[in-house]
């Protein structure tokens, strides 16, 4: 279900603003839209983190009162799962998807996108004027490439994410 939501959000994001920066949006409007998107993204991330914490607390509570052997076992399982996901899913995916560190040896989707958009802005007609049509096409392709790249990052870590889930379920089974 989450993957479907990500794909839908990506397609919407690719098609929403496939317009030339200067021709369609003033600098002030572009900044406003960018800020609104960033705020929405942060809000969604915070909500997801809160929901994940609530879910983990609720799962641990299923195993009895605090500090009982089964409750402590379940708490250890959730801690192990959190570590597994951080080490094998969250960190590698961020490196692939959004890292902007020049020393990490990886060209992330974000770095590739930023470079492509910069190149798009420099497309000129033979007489040296900005070629808006080609710039728009270039920016649209850059967005499509970024979308495919981020989906590739998700696919790379999916087996590890699945294994963390299996290990978590197995751990809970041992708790009783």
Task: Give a description of the structure.
The chain is built from six helices and no strands. With 176 residues, it is an all-alpha fold. It has one domain. About 5% of the residues have low confidence.
Question: Layout of helices and strands, plus pairs?
Answer:
Blueprint: H1 2-16, H2 21-24, H3 27-61, H4 69-97, H5 109-121, H6 132-175
Helix pairs in contact: 1-6, 3-4, 4-6, 5-6
Number of helices: 6
Low-confidence stretches: 14-22
Helix content: over 70%
**Which structural category do the helix and sheet elements fall into?**
mainly alpha
Radius of gyration: 22 Å
Topology order in helix (H) and strand (E) letters = HHHHHH
Measured by DSSP, the beta-strand proportion falls in under 5%
Biggest sheet record: none
Secondary structure: number of strands: 0
What is the total number of structural domains?
A: 1
Mean pLDDT: 87
Please state the overall shape, judged from the principal axes of the Cα atoms: elongated
- The first-to-last residue Cα distance is 29 Å
